[in-house]
Amino acid sequence: MAEAASSAHGGEETTRRDFIYIAAGAAAAVGAAATVWPFIDQMNPAADTRALSTTEVDLTAVELGQQIKVMWQGKPVFVRHRTPAEIAAAQRDDFASLKDPQTDAERLVQENGQPGRPEWLILQASCTHLGCVPTFVDGSSFGGWFCPCHGSDYDTSGRIRRGPAPANLFVAPYVFTGETSIRIG
Known about the structure:
10 strands, alpha+beta, 4-stranded antiparallel sheet, about 25% strand, Rieske Iron-sulfur Protein
């Protein structure tokens, strides 16, 4: 009889108490997950931010020698359709003394690592000095953008040539999605 009592309560058989411990532990784990999930979920970006993460641009409206300014993540981006003369000037300036050395070909690389097209230059439109928006000036010293706030001069590839800006205009992350369209971001 003593042997039967010990096997019923202390042996290797599963008891009702074991089941209650497992069920209580599982319920506590589910409750903890349900409590923590809203705090984790609120760290995700808002829907309006996710909507701005990429911008599609139709290039058919941009004539040769023109540029448009589009918004990506609340920041302006220049999409420039360069002329053969602007491309030649940018490639010629690859060997100039530059504050932030980069070749024109390096500035055309798409986000996926593929080479871009020389006629299209996609740049973030913020001066690297204080964040002003430079303007494209035909016939300027280097044929590119000029920031009137502090006098930074950029060439036809967006490279800093003169002025207080420490770096070139940043290339926006882009990829060609078709012959006449790009996705920024």
